[in-house]
Amino acid sequence: MVTKFSRPLFLHGFKWLLAAVVAFLILFPLWWIFISSITPAGELFSKPIRYWPLHPTLDSYKYLIDNVGLMKKIGSTAIIVGVSILVGMIISVMAAFSFARFKSRWLTFAAAFLLASMLIPDIVTARPLYDFLRYVHLYDTYTGLIVLYISGILPFTILILQNYLKDIPVSIEEAASIDGCGFFQSLYYVTLPLLRPALATVCIVNFITCLNNFFTPLFYSNGISVLSTAITQLPLRDNMYAVPWDLVSAMGWIIILPIIVFVAVFQKQIMEGIMAGGVKG
């Protein structure tokens, strides 16, 4: 029987137990991918199951570098994702500021249209976009992929920044204007510093979204290969059904690792952005 004195201790222990279970469910698949990537192919399906390989090796990673062009894929991914996030954030800040600060029928319509575009599945617009990129000679180019990546992250980013900007008092910008700041000076020196938590949060979300984007580079590119589509180019063993799980795991870990590092480094900014957006003054 739980008494009134032991109830807080019981609840505290239950919360830690629940946290441990959730952490295990999240971390164990990551651990399994990692040990599968350093396990020789002949030991992957050995019985009994081993949670650490008898003969750990980095042969899978070496094979990806030597035969699959891993470094080139990392370079292409860095260029496309980096430019997409940078340009996308600049456009999103300007658009969100316009939607939040200026009132007009056309801006309201544009904001509603942008929000509605989030409801359209990518597969619906795939063929028209494919034909359009062919027509303007942007198919299988870095420029074409960057434009598509940017268009994919704009609606969500603008929506988050617009809602955050609505909570920033206009009087702060008016005071800066009285002190002699121009429009762009006020935006750069006053508004952007206040937007920092939201900017950090959407940057991290967009980084994960762009890095995991599989459909766009697969459908709109042939010669440019990024990390998310590299798994489709891994050689099969023996026959078409023999999946090289060691190489698949190694490639999966290479994709996951930057996300883990990125979130670990910027976790403070993520929490600040979430709390700032969730707590009203």
TrEMBL record:
Stretches of the chain forming a coiled coil according to its record: none
Subcellular location: Cell membrane
Keyword list, A-Z: Cell membrane, Membrane, Transmembrane, Transmembrane helix, Transport
CDD domains for the chain: TM_PBP2 (cd06261)
Residue ranges of the TM segments: 16-35, 74-99, 106-130, 142-161, 194-215, 247-266
A matching Pfam family: BPD_transp_1
Mode of membrane association: Multi-pass membrane protein
Domain named ABC transmembrane type-1: residues: 74-266
Family statement drawn from the similarity comment of this UniProt entry: Belongs to the binding-protein-dependent transport system permease family.
Listed name of the protein: Carbohydrate ABC transporter permease
